[in-house]
Amino acid sequence: ENDIAAGKSVETAFGDFKKFVALVREKLPKTRIIVVSAKPSPARKAFAAKFREFNRLTAAECEKDKRLFY
């Protein structure tokens, strides 16, 4: 959520998430990753729709990998 609030697009932030997962898989293939959703705080309510989209993409990606938990 910090990246999106700082101006990154949802697509870029999601791409960064996927790169992170790929790096972990390369170095630590058995590692489980727990993903915490992006949550809109009152100060970031302007980003709520973007956070929802990022969360949707991330949750869908987690469904594809038994070592990812959303």
Write up this protein:
The protein has 70 residues and is mostly helical. The chain starts with a helix and ends with a strand. 54% of the residues lie in helices and 6% in strands. The longest helix has 18 residues.
Strand content: 5-15%
Overall structural class, as computed from helix and strand content, comes to: mainly alpha
Encode the helix/strand succession as letters.
Answer: HHEHE
Query: What are the segments in which pLDDT stays under 50 over at least 5 consecutive residues?
Result: none
Mean pLDDT: 96
Shape: elongated
Distance between the termini: 15 Å
How are the strands of the largest sheet arranged? Answer: 1-2
Number of strands: 2
Number of helices: 3
CA radius of gyration: 13 Å
Biggest sheet layout = 2 strands, parallel
List the helices and strands and how they pair.
Elements: H1 2-5, H2 10-27, E1 33-34, H3 48-63, E2 68-69
Parallel strand pairs: 1-2
Provide a quick synopsis of the model.
This protein has 70 residues and is mainly α. It has helices spanning 2-5, 10-27, 48-63, and strands spanning 33-34, 68-69. α2 runs parallel beside α3.
Can you give keywords for this protein?
6% strand, 3 helices, 54% helix, single chain, two-stranded parallel sheet, mainly alpha, 70 residues
